[in-house]
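Section 4.2 – Deliverable D4.2 (structural model, holo form)

The reporting period included a commitment to supply a predicted holo structure for the target in complex with nickel (II) ion. Inputs used:
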Amino acid sequence: MMIDTHAHYDDRAFDEDREELLASLKDAGVGTVINVGASWRGCRAAVDLSRRHDFIYAAVGLHPDEVGCLDDEKMAQLRTWAEVEKKVVAIGEIGLDYHNDVEEHSVQQEWFVRQMELADEVGLPIAVHSRDAAQDTWDLVSSHAGKARGVIHAFSASAEMAMRYIDIGFYIGMGGVVTFKNGKKAKDVIAKIPLSSLLLETDAPYLSPDPFRGRRNNSANLIYVVRMIAALKGVTEEEVIETTERNARELFHI
Ligand code: NI
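Output (structure tokens):
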């Protein structure tokens, strides 16, 4: 079954119908979801969702827009979740966002590195967010990522950069963008990287694939991403689903 390796069901966009929607995913072919924390509130909610639903796992970490709230106490709480909660399978999403530019670059970089170091200490992979910061992200990840490796989520850089990450053991996370008419770069990445390095993700409630672009996203829409990837790679949808499921289980130990 499909594994959605990056969704935000803690988001307020799901407040009206969260439980019904989650209950419907299995019939839509989605067997597993990793709910990724981004804000502090989101990390707490991700852990809570993973406790209440068998098929949901959690990642905890602060998005670069949110690192202004981090301090030693919150870092200690992240460590506790990572060590105590059996279903916390990654540190993320962490990284750099020079598009939104909420925090100074030096501040973003400092907390990105500290969260990568935490991931290495607790033996968990990282889920990396990178926007308009491809070179700095590469420099920091390639020099600080630990043995546990990780995924570059919503990959938006070049195919050449994707291959560099794959060479150091990272996975490439891809979602709705690959179905967009203007998603030429994402299509080029998919065409050039091996299926064995790819993870499926929605980033729900964001980045709905065509034909639902602009609407609220959910994991059931992953099938549209699978179809596009199968067409680009010249393989069956089943092969895309099976290989990406195996990849996710290997990286996150689920
Ligand atoms: Ni996200």
